[in-house]
Amino acid sequence: MVVEVGYAQAWDLEARVAWRPISVGEARERDTAGLPYVVVYREAGREAPLEVRLVSWRDHYVGLWVYDTQGRRTYDLDMRLLDDPVRLLRRCTVGWNYIGPEMAEFDEACPRITVELFPDGRGRRTEESQGKGGGSYVTVPGVRDDERWTDRPVFGEWPLLSAQVHGFTEPPVFEITEVAVAAGDGSGLAPATCWRPPRPAQPGPIGELFRPGVRVTDGYHPEMTVVEPRRTGSLRVPSGLLAVSGPDSDDGDGPHITVPVPPGEYVLEEAQARHTYHCEWEGSEVTRTDTMAVRVLISESPAATWEMARRSDDDPRLLRENEIFGFDTDGATGCFADAGAWEPLLALFEKGLIQGDPDLDPDVYEVISDSMYLLRTRDQASGGELAAFATTGDGTYPVWVGRSEAGEVVGVVVLVEGMPELLPESGATAGA
User: Which of 6, 30, 198, 310 is deepest in the core (most CB within 10 A)?
Assistant: First the structure.
C-alpha cells in the first residue's frame, strides 16, 4: 500500500485542505525550531485524508485527526511532550462511532468515547450515548504504561498511527508528494478555521471589569455597565502569603493556591455591573447591580499582565483547550486568606458557618451582609484573616494574578462566574 505524504504550515478543518504547503526540508527546519507544521497522509484515489498530524514542539504538543471515507473525523489524539525522559503522553483520545454513512460529522446521536490520561497514572474513560435518552458512563481506563507513553519519533520516521483503523495489513510505503491547498483570500493569514495547538483559558479583559463606564454582556443580559468597584473592608496578610481556596473542600494539604505578596492589609473589592430588564413579576423595568468578580487589591498600579495562578505540581503542558487550574469548591464558596494562619482561620470558618456555633467571639468571626463576601474570620495570635465569598456554583475556579510593568503583584482576582464580553464603547462606530 502506497501512502502519499505532504507537508504544510496548517490544516483547514472545515475545508479539509492544507494551508501553505512546504517542502520536506522546510518541514524539517520547522521541526528543529519547534514551529508548527502539519503532515497529511493520503491514499491515491481517496478524497479524504487518512490522517493529519499537527506538530508544535514549542507547545509540547502533537495532535492527530483520523478521517473516514466520508471525510468525517473519527478519532482525535492529543499527545504532550514531557521531559525526563523525553517522550509523548497520550493525554486525551476521542473516538466517534458513526451509525451509518449518512450520519453527519459530530452528530448529537453519535456515540463517543473519551479517554483522558495523566503522567501520575490517573485516568478517566467516559462513554457517551448521545441523542434522546443518552447518558454517560465513567470508569477508570485499563491502560498499560506502554499505551500511556510513546517515545518521540525522529522527523520523517513517524508511523501511520491510523493504519489499523483503516484496515491496513501490511506496513505502508510512504511517497512524498505536494498537498492540495485551498484558494487563499489574499491576506497571507491562515484562515480562522485552521487547526492550531490547544490553548488553556485566557484571562480576558479582567482589568476592565473594575473600570466604571465600561459596557459588557454576560451572555444573558445584552448590555451591562460597570460601576465603581464596591469595597468591602480589608484583609490582613501578615505572613506575606495570600491563600485563595475553597474553604468548604479542604483536602488536608493546605490552601489550593498561594500568591506571595508584601505583608500588609489589603482592600477587598467587588467588580460590579448595572443592568435594566423587564421584570414579569413586577410588570415593570427593574435595575439591578450584579457582582462579576472579587479582588484583593494589592496596589493601585494598573495591571500590565494577567496570569493564571497554579500550584507547584500543576503542569501547564497538560492543559487542553480552555482548561484551567484553580481552587475547587463543593459549596459554591471561595476565600482569600492569610496562608500563614490557614488552619486556625479555617477552623473558625467551619465553627461559624458550617457548625453554626453561636458563641463565637465577634472579634474572630464576623458575618458580612448584602455582599458577595459572606464572612471574615481572624486569628488573634497572628492577626491573619480569612474572607469567604460566594461563587455562582460548584466546580473549579481559576485565580488570576495581575502584575505591573515591573512584575510586581497588583491584584488577585476570582471571577464568580464566567468572563463577561466587552461591548463597543458608547459612540463607537463600526470599523472605527
Answer: 6
Q: Indicate whether 9 belongs to any domain.
A: yes
Residue 182 located in a structural domain: no
pLDDT of residue 364: 93
The reply to whether 40 and 148 lie within a common domain is: yes
The per-residue pLDDT for range 360-412, each reduced to its tens digit, is: 888 999 999 999 999 999 999 999 999 999 999 999 999 999 999 999 999 99
Least confident of 63-72, 154-163, 348-357: 348-357
Decide: 20 and 30 in contact? Cβ < 8 Å.
Answer: no
Range of the domain at 96: 2-176
Q: CA dihedral in degrees (47, 48, 51, 56; nearest 10)?
A: 100
CB atoms within 10 A of CB 113: 15
For residue 48, give Cα distances in angstroms to 40, 44, 71.
Answer: 10, 10, 5
The closest alpha carbon to 97, from 105, 86, 87, 88, belongs to 105
State the DSSP code for 353: I
CA–CA separation, 37 vs 22, rounded Å?
A: 9
pLDDT of 132 strictly over 60: no
261 with 152, same domain? Answer: no
Cβ(80)–Cβ(317) below 8 Å: yes
Q: Give the Cα separation of 40 and 427 in Å (integer).
A: 48
Band of the pLDDT at 87, cuts 50, 70, 90? very high
Helix (H, G, I), strand (E, B) or coil at 49: coil
At 267, the amino acid letter reads: V
Write down which residue in 128, 159, 176 finishes a domain. 176
